[in-house]
Amino acid sequence: MSIKKAAAAALVAALGVTSLAACGTDDVRGEAGKTDQPAPKTVTLVSHDSFNASKEVLADFTKQTGFTVKVLKSGDAGEAVNKEILTKGSPQGDVFFGVDNTLLSRALDNGIFVPYEAKGLDRVPAAYQLDKEHRVTPIDSGDICVNYDKKYFADKKLAPPQTFDDLVKPAYKNLLVVENPELSSPGLGFLLGTAAEYGDDGWQDYWKKLKANGVKTVDSWELAYNQEFSGSAGGKQAKADRPLVVSYASSPPAEVLYGEPQPKVAPTGVSTGTCFRQIEFAGLLNGAKNPEGGKALIDFLISKKFQEDMPLQMFVNPVAKDAALPELFTKHGVVVEKPETMAPEKIAEKRDPWIQQWSSLVLK
Question: For the chain, which terminal residue's Cβ has fewer other Cβ atoms within 10 angstroms, N or C?
Answer without folding.
Answer: C
